[in-house]
Automatic annotation (TrEMBL):
Keywords: Transferase. InterPro entries: Sugar_tfrase_PEP-CTERM_Stp1. It comes from Massilia litorea. The lineage of its organism: Bacteria, Pseudomonadati, Pseudomonadota, Betaproteobacteria, Burkholderiales. Pfam families: Glyco_trans_1_4. This is TIGR03087 family PEP-CTERM/XrtA system glycosyltransferase. Coiled coil: none annotated. It comes from the Bacteria. GO terms for molecular function: glycosyltransferase activity.
């Protein structure tokens, strides 16, 4: 009988705690589940953390038909939620119109009247005084609520990513991307000036934005990504996905994302031939969803393009090394941290290393030129470096706890 009473009291206490939570509006540009790519890993962990402190009302887009099956998982974390299908064709038409009018393409791509109405109604009916915005394009849905405490997690400086794209592309796309870089930076500065806090994924990213928006410098900060080291653990037994006798190098990531496409094409053209000349049984595995046609075209005897896999961990657990030869990158590369958490040596470009706290040469290898990448990979293929893998794992455990990084977020909502 005592246990029954005790259980009832605990449920009453939990219900009272839940009811006492303040309301918070969370705006995310892509459904924050499953956590299988950089932005979704960060937004999912942010949602989980906020749900422990607030009654979260979530508005988000769904850009992948497969993700609709995950709506119940996200709904379970929220007090209320609103999901909108993102139509790429309609988005591109709106972007084309925006280009003709000299506006930001990204903002128009994510403009939706239904979401705007849902946000307005939820803010009014719930009396919400706190708004968390994830990614610059979602700030447009918080513009009408200056009385609320508004915090934006820019993650990366999206406008600078467009600037980098412009430098890599030929006309006319270089002109289009340069236009978007200018337009979006104007909007990012406007948002940073109006919101109460602007956060980024790393200290270097925050510092760069301070130079671009010096008028908002005092309100700019950062919180780093974390890694689920229980999930990305080398201690479990994983089936080996590789053929007997081959030595696998692996790149992981969403393979319709242009910086990833550019990275694997560059590695396949400039690095892998040098590696195979010294280690003929080396094979390059490109592991990730929705490979672009340019990526699929790379497949041959030396390169395997897997497409979507149910679990990336076996590919990391049994590879000789992970490579991250990104030439365009902003923020923190989760692919690097996850490989390190799995205890694998990582050969990363300077751009992929930027923002990551780790000791080059001891916890990972940083390389720039094709020769440096090839020499580093060949050395690992000839003599696997278990000490570096162990040091990498220890570094991630020490520096990249989600709980530690997310705990200061709620202080941003206090006046």
């Amino acid at each position: 009988m005592n246990s029954i009473i005790e259980g009832a009291l605990q449920r009453q206490s939990a219900a009272a705690f839940e009811a006492a939570k303040p309301d918070l509006l969370l705006l995310v540009h892509r459904i924050p589940y499953p956590p299988n790519k950089g932005d979704k890993i960060r937004s999912y962990n942010l949602l989980k953390h906020l749900a422990t402190k607030y009654k979260v009302h979530l508005a988000t887009f769904v850009d992948d038909a497969d993700d609709w099956q995950h709506v119940p998982t996200v709904e379970a974390l929220c007090a209320s939620s609103h999901f909108v299908k993102l139509d790429p064709l309609q988005g591109k038409l709106r972007s084309a119109k925006a280009l003709a009018m000299g506006k930001s393409l990204s903002l128009e791509y994510y403009r939706d009247a239904g979401m705007k109405r849902w946000v307005a109604r939820t803010m009014r009916e719930r009396g919400i005084a706190r708004v968390m915005t994830f990614c610059s394009v979602m700030a447009q849905y918080a513009e009408d609520f200056p009385a609320a405490r508004r915090v934006i997690d820019f993650c990366d400086i999206d406008s600078d990513k467009w600037r980098q794209y412009a430098e890599k592309k030929k006309w006319p796309m270089s002109w289009v991307y340069a236009h978007e870089a200018r337009s979006l930076l104007d909007y990012e500065r406007k948002v940073a000036g109006e919101f109460d806090a602007s956060l980024f994924v790393s200290a270097p990213e925050a510092e760069l934005f301070r130079t671009l928006a010096p008028e908002s410098g005092a309100k700019i900060g950062h919180f780093s990504n974390g890694v689920d080291t229980e999930y990305f653990s080398p201690l479990r037994a994983y089936d080996n996905p590789y053929a007997a006798g081959e030595q696998a190098l692996v790149f992981t990531g969403a393979m319709d994302y242009w910086p990833n496409v550019d990275a694997v094409k560059w590695f396949a053209e400039h690095v892998l031939p040098r590696v195979r000349a010294s280690v003929p049984n080396a094979r390059f595995y490109i592991v990730g969803s929705r490979p672009a046609p340019e990526v699929l075209a790379l497949a041959n005897e030396a390169i395997v393009v897997t497409g979507t896999v149910p679990d990336v961990r076996p590919y990391l657990a049994h590879c000789v090394a992970a490579v991250a030869p990104l030439r365009i990158a902003r923020g923190i590369q989760n692919k690097v941290l996850e490989a390190m958490a799995m205890g694998r040596p990582v050969v990363a470009s300077q751009q992929a290393f930027e923002g990551i706290e780790a000791a080059p040469g001891r916890e990972l290898i940083v390389a720039d030129t094709p020769e440096e990448h090839a020499d580093s990979v060949i050395a690992l293929l000839r003599t696997p470096d278990t000490a570096m893998g162990q040091a990498a794992r220890a570094s991630v455990e020490r520096r990249y706890s989600w709980a530690a990084h997310l705990s200061p977020i709620e202080t941003r909502f206090e006046c």
